Amino acid sequence: MSLEWRGAAVAPDDEMPTPEEWEPVTVPGRPDQFAGADAVAYETTLSDPRSAGDEHAFLVLDGAFAHTRVWCDGDLLASHDAYFEPLQVALPDAEELRVVVECRAPEDRFGGLHATDRLPDDRCVPGIWWGAEIATRPDPCVRDLSARPRLHDDGASVEVTATVATDESLDDRLTLSLRPEGDVRGGGMMDRARVSTDPGTETVTYAMDVRDPSLWWPHDRGEQSRYVVRAKLGDDEHTATTGLASVEYDDGLTVNGETVRARGVTLVDPTVADVERAVRANANLVRVRAQGTPPDVAEACDEHGVLLWQDLPLSGPDEFDPERGSDLARRLDETYGRHPSFAAVGVHDDPVSPYADGLGSGFLDRLRFRFRAWRAGYDASDAEAVAEAVESVPTFPVVGPPGIDPDAVTLYPGWRYGSVDDLEWLCERFGVGEIVGGFGAGSLGRADPEAAPGFDRSCHDRHVEGGVDASQTYQATVVRRVTERLRQREATVLVADSLRDAGDAGMGLLTVDRDEKPAYDALANGYEPTQIVLSDPRPGEREVVILHDRPRRADLTVEWDRNGDREQVEHTVGPFARVTVETLSLSAGDDVTLAVTDGQRVATNEYTISE
């Protein structure tokens, strides 16, 4: 049913908010008139929503950021402190109901990017961000249903957890069924689980074996098969969708036991459209940075075959409570575990203050870099303890710069420090580069940006002279060269930072309005699963290298053109190969065009050799 809501900024205290004035607001949403408020109260009134045959009514909130309390008719019914986890509140039996929901800004370190200056204030308004609805059900009913895929050496199963609500003592059977969605091959399964409980709620967990399982794969590796789980109790039923996939990391990322090279982008304000644009950029992974993923975005990852790297909402320096972190990590694992796209969890993002901004590429600069990195050392023990609470997917406890021994490194040569040519030194000196959680450069989205959260203008001006065109051209150059070099170094997980700006300028490949910057095409080209590149676009003896990120050998036609002199060869490469097919002697000013095709898809690269 549709609800009308009113809102007001309030001062947080222990009592139910009683503002002097309310104003109409849209829920779900982030009312920008409350930007900067520490707490916002939301009120709605409704008649008893139960119709004939319904004994239960629930208020279901999704994305209640960040610490939330719910009152009905003056009584406190629920408190909640994990906005990525749905909140379901049983409503009392009354003819008229007045519901008040108070959302507070984070009261601890777990606000993620929304507790930093990387997002505009109007994206951080305490509120009900993703969903708000009333659900009515008969008695007894299945109040909630979740499903966790499990792959075993001898097959697969789905662990089904159903929460049953009843007003009377109950001794019955819960009927569970599992059926392929759409045209997925394989048969369905059905079973029954006993429910015996006194009035109240009872949780039932049951493992359903899957016969002839059809697996879920990233879009560049296979089909996105999914299954619908149905739980029926008396006249009530509840459904959930899941898929069968297993992700591990051990000297490389594997999905369902097979190697996958992950090519990704960071989302700082995730939407379904961003997932679709990531696929168009040849990405097979998105990293939702230091925040929860909206349900529709996680569903889009499932549908489009995009792996989901889900961060805990924890970003920036300063200590945090590891017990609180472990609790949130367990709940995050449970919330996203039903999604077959769920692939990794990052714990602590950007845990030290920037220490190398403005350093160049000279000998003394590198000495300063090493000294500052040593001085910025980070104790990862708390982050590692939190990571142990995640059971279903690989974890990256520390995501940060080289020099602090991160599990996933963030690399910004040519932006925060030095030039792109410093990449090799950084990787070799600090032993990083296999898992890259962020790389790239920023650019202007419009001339004279007024609002640019997360954008370092002084860093930009060190590298760029000129307006929007010069800015975006420089960004594209950095993105292209770093992408090519990291792929040549056989990075197993590679994530560009980031897909879309949060304001008028930023690290995005797209503007805040989703207009493409040149860097978007540069990344899409660099992320071609089979691509051909120059080892270095500078004068000298340079290799022509095939990058092949597919699991099977391929017969390829390779062509290169240097200043109009064209040559073509046939070449066979093995799975996940990095193969040199020719060495060219290049001079400044040379124009080089490279192309490779497997007969179905053509990838090209053009270079003008510079000093």
TrEMBL record:
Protein name as it appears in the record: Hydrolase
Pfam families: Glyco_hydro_2 (PF00703)
Keyword annotations: Glycosidase, Hydrolase
GO MF annotation list: hydrolase activity, hydrolyzing O-glycosyl compounds
Organism per entry: Haloarcula salina
Compositionally biased spans, kind Acidic residues: 12-23
One example of a Gene Ontology biological process annotation: carbohydrate metabolic process
Matching SUPFAM superfamilies: (Trans)glycosidases, beta-Galactosidase/glucuronidase domain, Galactose-binding domain-like
Region (Disordered): 1-30
Leader sequence residues: none
Domain Glycoside hydrolase family 2 immunoglobulin-like beta-sandwich: 142-238
